[in-house]
Write a structure and sequence with these properties.
Elements: H1 7-35, H2 38-60, E1 74-78, E2 81-84, H3 85-95, H4 105-126, H5 143-156, H6 162-171, E3 177-178, E4 181-189, H7 192-203, H8 208-215, E5 226-231, H9 237-244, E6 255-257, E7 260-270, E8 273-274, H10 277-307, E9 310-312
Helix pairs in contact: 4-5, 4-10, 5-10, 6-10, 7-8
Length: 326
């Protein structure tokens, strides 16, 4: 039979419990209440299971918006399409000078920029009306792609007008001025004795071309010693004046040169003149149009850089990249 507890003992026990609750604080109070509340324990268990479930799910599958890093074989991506390092190496083999095996980082960077530029222009061409038959990622060096790119530039670059050509001609008029020139032949010999034999043959009436073919050592002796049309500035000063004083069909005496002895004949004299516009019109038209196309190609490339997402991965390259896509 349990011993009886007096009222005084009960009051003392309650005071002791109250002091402990105050000392332990609210957390102890909540824990004490939970220990006497089965529903609270079940709620704690359920919450723990939910947290564990979420934690496990988060560890097993990363968020879908985190992209996998590209493999080291990928030099760049163009709107998500991989451009491989091997593709650039193939491009180098086809386009770089085979004697330039020691290309430095700067040269390789410039070539990579050209390679990426072509990818951007090819993509732009494929998205244009003129490239409707091209694939989405066309091969950059195919004839169809190059034609589509050129057509884009041509469409944006109107051909030069007659007024454009005439203005360009007037601007460059000095380049079309031709000074007085002579059509010249030459006999070149190693020694003076042979030069004197050649001069004697000419004085005896043998043609200059025949004497040159027989006695000259010049590289054009089989052409009669023909040197082409030369201006005064094309000749050594020590005998230029004498040659330009000669009448057509006459020959000079013997000139001493550092590499032998020379005799000259003036075949024809051509007065100073300005090349007429009619003679250079077609060349000027082609040059002006080519420059306009180049300007449009640069503008198209700038458009493509803005329009498409090209990401380069310099750490995947076998050289230190220093180009414009950094």
């Amino acid at each position: 039979m349990a011993p009886k507890v007096t009222a005084a003992e009960t009051t003392a026990a309650e005071l002791t419990a109250a002091r402990g609750a105050i000392a332990r604080g609210p957390a102890a109070k909540r824990a004490n209440l939970a220990a006497h509340d089965p529903g609270s324990a079940r709620r704690r268990l359920l919450a723990t299971l939910v947290v564990l479930s979420l934690t496990t799910a988060g560890c097993s599958e990363p968020p879908s918006d985190i992209a996998e890093p590209p493999q080291e074989s990928v030099a760049a991506t163009l709107d998500g399409t991989s451009i491989l390092v091997a593709d650039f190496e193939d491009y180098l083999r086809r386009n770089a000078d085979p004697d330039s095996l020691d290309l430095n980082d700067a040269a390789l960077s410039r070539l990579l920029d050209q390679f990426l530029d072509k990818h951007l222009l090819a993509r732009l061409a494929a998205d244009s009306p003129s490239g409707a038959d091209l694939p989405v990622a066309p091969p950059i060096e195919s004839g169809a792609v190059e034609q589509a790119i050129r057509q884009l530039a041509l469409d944006a670059a109107p051909p030069p007008t007659d007024a454009d050509i005439e203005a360009a001609y007037r601007t460059r008029l000095a380049t079309f001025e031709q000074p007085e020139r002579v059509q010249l032949r030459q006999i070149l010999t190693y020694d003076r004795s042979t030069a004197e034999d050649a001069l004697a043959a000419l004085e005896a009436g043998e043609s200059f071309a025949d004497v040159a073919a027989r006695l000259s050592i010049g590289p054009r002796k089989d052409l009669g010693g023909d040197q082409g049309r030369l201006a005064r500035s094309d000749l050594p000063r020590r005998f230029a004046d004498e040659i330009f004083d000669m009448a057509p069909g006459t020959h000079s005496g013997i000139f001493r040169a550092d590499y032998g002895f020379q005799i000259f004949q003036v075949v024809e004299r051509l007065p100073a003149r300005v090349t007429p516009l009619a003679d250079v019109r077609d060349g000027l038209r082609a040059e002006l149009w080519r420059r306009r196309v180049d300007v449009q190609l640069a503008a198209l490339l700038a458009e493509a850089r803005e329009r498409y997402d090209l990401q380069l991965f310099p750490s995947h390259l076998p050289f230190a990249y220093r180009g414009s896509y950094a």
